[in-house]
Structures are given as structure tokens and as C-alpha cells.
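Morning!

This is the sequence you dropped in the shared folder:
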Amino acid sequence: MDQMGELVATRVPIQSSRIRTTAVRHRLVRVASRVPIALVRRTLSADRILNRMVLYPRYVRREVTGRYSLYHIVDHSYAHLVHDLPHATTIVTCHDIDTFRCLVLPGEERRSRPFRAMTQRILDGLRRAACVVCGSASTRDDLLRFNLVPEERLRVVMNGIDPEFLPEPSDVAREWATAHLGRVDDGIDVLHVGNDIPRKRVDRLLQIVAAVRESGAAVRLVRVGSPMTLAHKNLAKRLNLPVLELPFVDRDALRAVYERAAVLLMPSDREGYGLPVIEAFAAGRPAVISDIPALREVSGGLARWVDPNDIRAWVAAIQHTLQPQDVSVGQYARRAHAASLTWDAHARGLLPIYDEVLDAARGVVQCA
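The structure's back. C-alpha cells below.
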């Protein structure tokens, strides 16, 4: 979401000289987490809720409301801020409906009553926005399927990658990748980029890569993102699976990591978009992904789609992709597809929506 904020603040003015942007951020104020280190994790969570639901809205009311012509909340999980902004000139970008699963699918996503109340306020804010921008048609379809936002207020502007992913990585980034990943001829690396949260199905990822190794392929799993949970680390040990974990790295270094990988894997149960697929495509690399709406949409038919629960199908798809003659097939198409989905393209897609909302708001004022 920080990248999305950077996108709006920096790329939109490049696309239109008549627009000036101001990035509004709220610095975390520690209240409960001023405690001994052993208690920090629990109290930091409390502080985040306090800042998100109380201090940030108060800051918006005092310092932000009424100062700008248009407001764009780039993360739907902060849609409760719409309550404190002019509804007619406030836009929210929705990336997926995970935030609202405890309301629309309570049997699958069990949460406490206070958590559901907090989520309901976020959803009420989303519903008050003049327009909701969806990063994919899949997200729009989910919002409609669960009747979360009226169709007439939904717009689709496909998310994109930083244009810096399109050129080759720098020599410094390649040296960094070599230092952290080893020599190119040390084996075959399959890559996963993202958090270790339940819907990403890192457990399935580990089982898939282990099954590929059992088939005789000397593959190693490289993960870039948040560290694996202890349960997943233990599973990797039981599977005798070599895993190299890297933290989130800068774009140049990440571009070099993609370049080094043989294939990207995304065995997620749910996604709102699937940014790593486009990042891998920018490096010309193939991807094997779950056959789910968002990943089918973002891949443009250039990846291998697999039934998420069919481990054998994953192994067959990966084995086929790892064939030397197959890795290079489609590189041009993948790079071209990535080049069509950039931050600049997304910014250009926002401009008519900004005009639409401003024109409608002026109409409301004139009628009054």
C-alpha cells in the first residue's frame, strides 16, 4: 500500500500538469506499546488499532478535511476515513475483499464482535465514497457478488508495476543477487514473493516444491518477503526442503532476483491482483499460478494455471516449465504484457475518474 501511495503522489502529476498532489500520512503514536520488550507485540497491535480507528480519523478531521478539492484513499482498509471527509469528493481504491470476509463469510472468517464492529465501520465508509476504484475486474466482481458497493460507483483501473522493473537490473543489483543466491550454476531456483499469510498458502508451496524435488529435479525454493511462520519452517524441515529466505528488498535487487529465478510460483487461494506475476513477466520469467480469477486476469493467458489443490498438476506444470526449450518461449510476450501494466498506465486511468467525481460534486453544489 505504500507503493500505491507513492504511485498517486508521484505519477499522477506526471500524467497531468493541472493536478497537484499532497501525500497525507499519519505517524504511529505509541501509547500501549511503551512497555517492556516482551509485551511489545501484543500492545503494538493495540496501538495500531488505536491509531487507525481513533487518532488517524481525528487528525484527518483537524488537519485534512476541507483543504483539498479531491481525496483519494489508496487502501480500502482505511475506508472508515471517508466518514471524516467530504463524501462527494472522496475516492477509495479497493484491492480485494479480504478485509470484509468476517462480515460476508462469517463461517469461514470467525472474528470477535469488536473486530466485526470495526470492520463494519470500514465497510460503511467504503459505501459512502463517491467512487471505488478496483485494481482488477476480479475485485469488482467480488464487491458485486457480496453486494458491498453499488455497481454504478465501481470503476476498474488495473494495478501495475513500477516502470523501474522494465529495464534490466543494475550491475550492483546483479552482484547483490549473486552474493545472496550463489552462482547461477548451483541449481534451479523457484521463486515465491509475498507475505506468509494464510491465503498465500505457503504450506501448499512447500509441499509442491518438495514434490518436484522427489521427482528428481534439483530445485531450491527462494522466498522474498516476510519470514515464514514457525509452523512452516518446521514443515520445510520435515520435508527436507532447502529454502532461502530474503526480506523485502528494493526494486532493483528484486528485479535481479526475478531474473535469476527459473519460475515464479503463486499457489494462493485468493488474490486481488497478483503483482508478482507481472514483476516476473517484466524479467521475462514464466509463472505457474493457481487457477483463480485474479491470477487468470493479471497473467493475460501467459502463465500456466493449475488447480490449487492438485499437487500432481503443479509438479507436471513446473516440470514442463523448467524444460530448457520452454523457459525462453513467450519471453517477448511476457515482457510486453508487463510493459502494458505500469504505474503510469494506472495513473492515466485515474485521471478521468478524478474528473468524473469533481464534475459530479460541482453539480451537487450548483443544484443546492
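Headline: The mean pLDDT is 91.

More detail when I'm at my desk.
O.
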